[in-house]
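Progress narrative, work stream C.
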Amino acid sequence: MPWLYFTLKPRHRAWAEAWQKEVQDRLRELETVEIAEGCFISPEAHLFAEPGRPIRIVGPGVSIAANTFVHGPVVLEAGVSLNARVSLDGGAAGIHIGEGSRIATGATLYAFDHGLAPDRSVRSQPVTSRGIVLGKDVWVGANAGITDGVRLGDHSVVGMGAVVTRDVPPWAIVAGVPARVIGDRRERRRSGAPDPSWPPSDDSGD
C-alpha cells in the first residue's frame, strides 16, 4: 500500500525515508535506474534495467507497489503509481507514462510483438517494437492490457479488463475486448471537491 508512505506523520517519516534510501540505493547499484527524490519503491518490486534499457523515474511522488514487474526502457513522470502485480515491458522502443497517471492492479503493458508467419515456429518469429505512450492523468483499470504501438491521450480512462489495441483520444473512456470508446470524462458529473491541481494547465480539449 504505497500511498501510506506519502501520508506518514512526521515522527515516522525519518525512519521510512532512511529505509527507502536503502531500497533505492540498492537498485541503483544493481540496475540502470534513475530515481527522483520523494518516490516509493517496494522492496518486493521487480525492476530490470540492463544497459541500454534504463528505467527512468524522472519526477517526485512515483509509487511502485509489491510484485510489480518493470523491464526497461521505461520512463515514469511525477506522481505515477504502479499498483501490485502491474507488468511493464518496454521492448526496444520503450514505455513512457505521463504525470499523475495511475495503473491499477494486474494491468499489463507490453511494448513489443511477435510475428505470426506460418512457416516458422512461434519462438523463432521476429520481434518488433513501436513503443507505448500514456499521457498525463491517465487511469488504466485493473487487469487491463495495452498492446504495442498504442498512445493514450491525456485524461483518458481504460476500463477494468479492457484490451487496448488502438490509440485512445484525450478524455475518452474505453472498455471491452478490443477496447472501444464508451464515454467522455468531460461529460461526467463534477465532483464538487476542490482540487488545487485542477483544472489542467494546458488546453487539451477542455
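Work stream C, second folded protein:
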Amino acid sequence: MKNLVVILCVALLSGACSKSSTTKTASGGKAAKPEKGWISLFDGKSFDGWKVGKNADSFKIEDGAIAVNGPVGHLFYMGPVKDHNFKNFQFKAKVMTLPGSNSGMYFHTQYQEESWPKKGFEVQVNNSHTDWRRTASLYAIQDVKETYVKDNEWYTEEIMVQGKKVTIKINDKVVNEYTEPEGVERPKDMSERKIGSGTFALQAHDPKSKVYYKDIMVKVLPD
C-alpha cells in the first residue's frame, strides 16, 4: 500500500510538471494574440488585398515582410476592410530601412497607376538618405529634421488621424503633430494634400533604396 501511494504521488507530480512545461512553451512562442481593435492588412505571405500599377517588381515578399526596392512605384491597400476608405484611424507598421534608403507611407490616398500619388499625404520613411526630411515627416507639410531610429533595426511607425489632426509616433513616442487649418490652401502641385478619406500605400522610391514593412495594421476610429 505504501508503495502504491508513492507511485501515485510521483505520477501526479510528473503530470503537473508536464503541464507547466507545455504552458510555458505555448506562452513563449512567436504567435501573439492580436491587440484588441487592430486589424491586420497584410498576411505576411501574399499581396491579397493590395494592388500596384507600374513597376510592380519593386515589391516582393521576403521572410514575412514586404521588401520595397526598385524604380518608383506604389503599393495600395485595396482590400475589404472599410472598403479601403479610411477617415479617422490608427495605422501602424514595423519598418526597417537599409542605409541610404528612402520610402514612405501614404494615407487618405487613392489608387494611381504610376508616378507619385496626388491625393493624400506621405509620411516619410528615411533615416539616412540624402533627402533631409526624416522619418515621421508629414512630407512637405510639416517636416522632421531629427533622426529618431537607426538603419538595419526594426521600429514601429504609427499614424493617427482624428478629425483634422494628424499624430505620428515612432516606437510609441509622439514626434510629429499637425492640425490642418480651416480653409487651408495648398500650392497647385499639392492641391489634393488635404484631410479627407482614402486608403494607404507604400512607396518604392528608387533602385538604391531598400525598406522592409511587416505587421501592417489599422484600427478604425469613430468618424
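The radius of gyration is 23 Å. No further action is required on this item.
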